[in-house]
């Protein structure tokens, strides 16, 4: 239990210390107008207050990642706590903060546009296709997982196909409606439910004296479990997730002032890390170790663990509310995944989104493709999602590092975690059966060499951008009076 409590404490301290340091490195400008005012359109660019933006951001980035991922990561034992804490403070929260703030400085631009500007024009097309694929995978995963949880909650009394259809119908409305009509109005309440249910599970773990295992030298590397790099692809949300880079522009377009960014972007990633710690601890302590956890996972997947943990710790009524809180997570991330995909495509083709018809003809094909994706085996879908997720995180971290490199600021805060994860991303896909299936020695060699080459290319591109005197932000001086 000491490992767990120290980990949560470190996350909180990290927000007030390293988060403040990252904010100073970036250099916020209180008086600079934000896209919420400069580009206000009543659909995607709408000023909203910090409380709303923070809770919506938490729901947007969370999904089932900080619940399902840590439950699966619990199979590795307490070493999972290290990745959640270190990854969240030094990688995930930095990733979220920089992508959010750089987007604010560039009219609320999405990752493909930012990659094109800072990493080179060719990257726009690559990252655009990659981001759309990731968002379709996310949207599909976040249709399937809440549907399965609802199916379990009501003991299979309603056909899962009907539940899937209902979720898709909701997603269509949420994707097309102005951001303040559904997302801005209801999601803060859903965010509160999520926080309360997670806090309830965490409090009962402490109150009941659950045997949360401690980190020791003997369990630092569990038997028959190759921690590196597999742990980084098991626990993504809650530590580091490229999906977040696709979500932050939704809120970068509704943020009123730059100083709010640390609470909205860095702070909500820390909150997600705490949620991940709670669910990892619950999965480690309530099922008699990895063997018992494996049995329940084999029987009903992570959804069965969520149901069992919630009812065991909170009772039938409060436990059901906690499960509902977890169901809300993927639903409120799935709809924003499709919304982000719509916005990215509209941005790529320069299609104004004021008219509903313009939003509709972009969104409907996305939903049609996602329906097809639901027919793919979920475990295979999740593996591809996990790799694509971390590959996108690497791209976003390199965008942040390039921005700071051109500005002659401390770019190491993004480059070090970006380069580390680049090695992991290349190594994983070279070894994995969904990739090239090479042996671990060959995969590690390829990962290190590949990452080294790409880091060298990063510096070459950065020097070119410095020579070009690339503007880091969009000039909004003409809009200062409007913003005020």
Automatic annotation (TrEMBL):
Keyword Cell membrane: yes
Main location: membrane
Membrane topology: Multi-pass membrane protein
Transmembrane segments annotated in the record for this chain: 75-98, 126-154, 160-179, 186-207, 227-243, 264-287, 312-332, 360-378, 384-404, 411-430, 442-459
Record keywords, A-Z: Cell membrane, Membrane, Transmembrane, Transmembrane helix
Domain CstA N-terminal: 3-143, 163-286
Database matches in InterPro entries: CstA (IPR051605), CstA_N (IPR003706)
Single GO biological process annotation from the record: cellular response to starvation
GO cellular component: plasma membrane
Intracellular or extracellular location(s): Cell membrane
Family: Belongs to the peptide transporter carbon starvation (CstA) (TC 2.A.114) family.
PANTHER family: CARBON STARVATION, INNER MEMBRANE PEPTIDE TRANSPORTER
Protein name as it appears in the record: Carbon starvation protein A
């Amino acid at each position: 239990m000491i490992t767990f409590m120290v980990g949560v404490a470190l996350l909180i301290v990290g927000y007030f210390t390293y988060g403040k340091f990252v904010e100073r490195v970036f250099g916020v400008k209180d008086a600079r107008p934000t896209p919420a005012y400069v580009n206000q359109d009543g659909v995607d660019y709408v000023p909203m207050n910090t409380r709303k933006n923070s809770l919506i951001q938490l729901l947007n980035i969370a999904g089932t990642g900080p619940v399902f991922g840590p439950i699966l990561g619990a199979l590795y034992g307490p070493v999972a706590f290290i990745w959640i804490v270190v990854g969240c403070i030094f990688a995930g929260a930095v990733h979220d903060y920089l992508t959010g703030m750089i987007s604010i400085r560039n009219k609320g631009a999405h990752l493909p546009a930012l990659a094109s500007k800072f990493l080179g024009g060719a990257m726009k097309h690559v990252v655009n296709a990659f981001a759309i694929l990731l968002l379709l995978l996310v949207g599909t995963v976040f249709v399937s997982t809440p549907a399965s949880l609802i199916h379990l909650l009501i003991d299979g009394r309603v056909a899962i196909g009907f539940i899937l259809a209902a979720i898709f119908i909701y997603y269509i409305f949420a994707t097309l409606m102005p951001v303040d009509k559904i997302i801005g109005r209801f999601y803060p309440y859903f965010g509160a439910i999520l926080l309360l249910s997670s806090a309830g599970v965490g409090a009962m773990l402490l109150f009941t004296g659950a045997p949360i295992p401690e980190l020791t030298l003997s369990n630092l590397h569990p038997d028959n479990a190759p921690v590196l790099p597999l742990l980084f692809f098991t626990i993504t949300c809650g530590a580091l997730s490229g999906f977040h880079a696709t979500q932050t522009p939704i809120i970068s377009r509704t943020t009123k002032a730059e100083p709010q960014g640390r609470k909205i972007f860095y702070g909500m990633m820390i909150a997600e890390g705490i949620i991940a710690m709670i669910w990892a601890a619950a999965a480690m302590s309530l099922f008699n170790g990895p063997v018992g956890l494996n049995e329940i996972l084999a029987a009903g997947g992570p959804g069965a663990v969520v149901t069992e943990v919630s009812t065991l710790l909170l009772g039938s009524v409060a436990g059901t509310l906690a499960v509902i809180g977890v169901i809300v997570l993927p639903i409120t991330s799935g709809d924003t995944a499709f919304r982000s995909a719509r916005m990215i495509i509209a941005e790529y083709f320069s299609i104004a989104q004021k008219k509903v018809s313009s939003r509709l003809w972009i969104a409907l094909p996305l939903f049609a493709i996602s329906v097809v994706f639901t027919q793919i085996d979920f475990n295979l879908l999740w593996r591809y999602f996990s790799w694509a997720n971390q590959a996108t995180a690497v791209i976003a971290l390199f965008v942040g590092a390039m921005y700071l490199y051109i500005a002659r600021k401390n770019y190491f805060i993004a480059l070090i975690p970006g380069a580390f994860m680049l090695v992991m991303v290349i190594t994983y896909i070279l070894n994995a059966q969904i990739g090239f299936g090479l042996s671990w020695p060959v995969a590690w060699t390829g990962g290190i060499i590949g990452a080294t080459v790409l880091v060298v290319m990063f510096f070459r591109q950065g020097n070119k951008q410095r020579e070009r005197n690339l503007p880091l932000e969009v000039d909004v001086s003409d809009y200062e009076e409007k913003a005020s």
